[in-house]
């Protein structure tokens, strides 16, 4: 950063004139002889106040236990604030913004819509954190240090940070769209596979960028992924970097139970590969409408997450193409060293197959019956030859891209029993179809239980 401006400090007889310079992450005020009179290292512990009135604009800070004001032209103050606001703490929140409607609540924070004073069209969001609800201030500073370096269309833009008497404010750009947790739980609208493909593909691009800047998000889950189906490009945003860390940082924080990579729970050294496992858990939930690790409460879910036992073979029952199953298996690899990397995943056949489809990604309502899915599975079991399996999978793929996933009440619940699994169905007609098919064709259902 570099700038070259003039300011002055008022005195009774004669004002002192200073040249403002910003370099090497320092704010320096030089007197007329070119000697540094005041120097501030730019970090979150430095607080600057602003006067933006047209009559006497100024900026001020405390140094040597005294607070000092420095006056300059309005344009100089505007440029200086724009240059510094991502690197220091400001303390005049209400001078610049008005809080709007409530959006959501986090673990120790609240999110509101935000309007810039004098420009109601420019909308932001603010993360409001009460000081008594936060643990160590360094944890907050860690989040800010990561936010300010993010520079990707799929990540939120950090604007500035404020510290008032009782509250911290993190100002961010406003992101349009809906959380995946909301879309995935909607009964009347469901995401098609081509939409899921788009979401996961864009998330892969985001993970690839995070690998480049050596940042681990550590809390990838449906609440932290925003999807906007109205836009054609950059429709996905990954938010909430409260638990993110730089690679090599020792900060003991867990993510969301049910989406945590096993190496984190085993207290082993983690890397950017951990985010891939979490995204795999999201991918599974989008496909199946159920969590990969389930429990009656967060504690039970965390226990299941720690066990890290799961069976992906039931995905064959709901028309999921083999390419999607294969990608998901690579994402959920227990050993992080063997887990697929974002660059490899971007080139996976699952994305190439879906991109070749000409089907519109709009949300639609038609669903194939479960009985057809069961017949497809039976066809695989009857004709085990590879070419026949591939041919059938192509047909499933076409059906899948032209239709939604089945409604939640039509997804079979896999129950392990001795010698295999049984299906628990809510639809009696589909149950009759399965029984009839078994009696007529005498098909032996292969065991889907975990090896």
From TrEMBL:
Single GO MF descriptor: ATP binding
Protein kinase domain boundaries: 97-351
GO annotation, cellular component aspect: cytoplasm; nucleus
GO BP: mitotic DNA damage checkpoint signaling
A Pfam family hit: Pkinase
Name of the protein in question: Protein kinase domain-containing protein
């Amino acid at each position: 950063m570099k700038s070259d401006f003039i300011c002055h400090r008022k005195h009774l007889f004669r004002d002192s004139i200073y040249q403002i310079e910003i370099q090497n992450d320092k704010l320096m005020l030089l007197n007329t002889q070119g000697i540094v009179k005041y120097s501030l290292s730019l970090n979150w512990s430095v607080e600057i106040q602003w006067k933006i009135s047209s009559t006497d604009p100024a900026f001020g800070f405390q140094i040597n236990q005294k607070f000092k004001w420095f006056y300059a032209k309005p344009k100089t103050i505007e440029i200086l604030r724009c240059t510094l606001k991502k690197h220091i703490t400001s303390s005049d929140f209400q001078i610049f913004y008005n809080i709007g409607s409530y959006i959501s609540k986090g673990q120790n924070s609240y999110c509101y819509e935000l309007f810039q004073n004098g420009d109601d069209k420019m909308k932001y969001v603010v993360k409001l954190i009460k000081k008594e609800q936060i643990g160590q201030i360094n944890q907050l500073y860690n989040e800010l240090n990561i936010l300010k370096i993010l520079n990707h269309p799929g990540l939120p833009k950090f604007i500035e940070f404020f510290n008032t008497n009782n509250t911290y404010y993190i100002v961010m750009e406003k992101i349009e769209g809906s959380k995946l947790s909301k879309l995935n739980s909607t009964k009347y609208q469901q995401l098609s596979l081509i939409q899921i493909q788009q979401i996961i593909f864009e998330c892969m691009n985001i993970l690839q960028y995070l690998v480049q800047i050596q940042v681990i998000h550590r809390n990838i889950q449906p609440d932290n992924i925003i999807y906007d189906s109205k836009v054609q490009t950059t429709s996905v945003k990954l938010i909430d970097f409260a638990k993110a860390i730089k690679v090599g940082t020792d900060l003991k924080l867990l993510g969301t139970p049910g989406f945590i990579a096993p190496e984190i729970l085993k207290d082993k050294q983690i890397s950017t590969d951990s985010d891939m496992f979490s995204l795999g858990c999201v991918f599974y939930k989008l496909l199946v409408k159920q969590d990969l690790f389930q429990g009656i409460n967060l504690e039970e879910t965390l226990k299941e997450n720690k066990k890290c036992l799961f069976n992906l073979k039931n995905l064959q029952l709901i028309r999921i193409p083999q390419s999607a199953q294969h990608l998901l298996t690579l994402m959920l690899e227990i050993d992080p060293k063997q887990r697929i990397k974002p660059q490899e995943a971007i080139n996976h056949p699952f994305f190439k197959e879906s991109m070749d489809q000409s089907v519109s990604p709009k949300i639609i309502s038609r669903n194939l019956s479960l009985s057809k899915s069961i017949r497809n599975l039976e066809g695989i079991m009857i004709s085990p030859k590879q070419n026949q399996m591939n041919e059938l999978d192509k047909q499933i793929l076409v059906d899948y891209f032209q239709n939604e996933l089945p409604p939640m009440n039509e997804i079979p619940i896999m129950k392990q029993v001795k010698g295999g699994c049984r299906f628990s169905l809510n639809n009696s007609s589909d149950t009759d179809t399965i029984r009839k098919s078994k009696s007529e064709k005498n098909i032996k259902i292969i065991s889907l239980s975990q090896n």
